[in-house]
Amino acid sequence: MNILFVGDIFGKAGREILASHLADIVKQRSVDLVIVNGENSAAGFGITPSHVKEFLSLGAHVITSGNHIWDRREIMEYFPTEPRLLRPANFPDAPGQGLYVGTTASGIPFAVLNLQGRVFMATLDCPFRAADRELAKVPASCKIRIVDMHAEASSEKIGMGWYLDGRVTAVLGTHTHVPTADERVLPNGTAYITDVGMTGPADSIIGVVKEGILKRFLTQMPERFEAAEGDPRLMAVLIRADPETGRATSIERIHLRGD
Hints:
Elements: E1 2-6, E2 8-9, H1 11-28, E3 33-37, H2 49-58, E4 62-64, H3 74-78, E5 99-103, E6 109-116, H4 127-135, E7 144-150, H5 154-164, E8 170-174, E9 184-185, E10 191-193, E11 198-201, H6 210-219, E12 232-241, E13 248-257
Parallel strand pairs: 1-3, 2-11, 3-4, 6-7, 7-8, 8-10
Antiparallel strand pairs: 1-12, 5-6, 9-10, 11-12, 12-13
């Protein structure tokens, strides 16, 4: 079974390169399951119902998110209508859900869990205990289990990888928008990477127009942050796994330019 996870989709540039390349990747790599992180798709901050529908129409099976999920207020009322859109499961009391259990077109059951870290981020419920709680809800017959660990600290993401090794198919880090080169399969069969990276404009500072952030660094004064558009890149990982056991056999980084 081949599983594609696309890193944080940022703004118009990210949406457009996803639309241009996703179908080809799915066909060329014989992808069975597509998961995308869409929390930055609305001009870099949040996601709208129209973007959710767009990603699903392109072939995404599940959309994960993170700390920017509440930036667009209209998404709060939309959550009950679309279970394939996830928010981190360790938000203590929020609309929507952090776990989705479904079946691929070929009949393979799968589960996707969304978590958010707490180091250098908002103080949410413990993501490790939330993982235990949510995974207990997944039927034993569902062996393919993918976790989006949306966190700032590398140590916290690495910790989650080791904590869930052998219990899930993959723990995939998101949030920093910078891809890491530590992809591997852990000893008990869990594919891991600290950060998948960003699907969006590389001519930027983590997706945002450079000048505004540089001025903020230099002056420490408030600045308006705007989504950049130049040099779009698609960053993702492809995981190969055994649907009978849920164990990953490989993880590969994918990095495509818009041209």
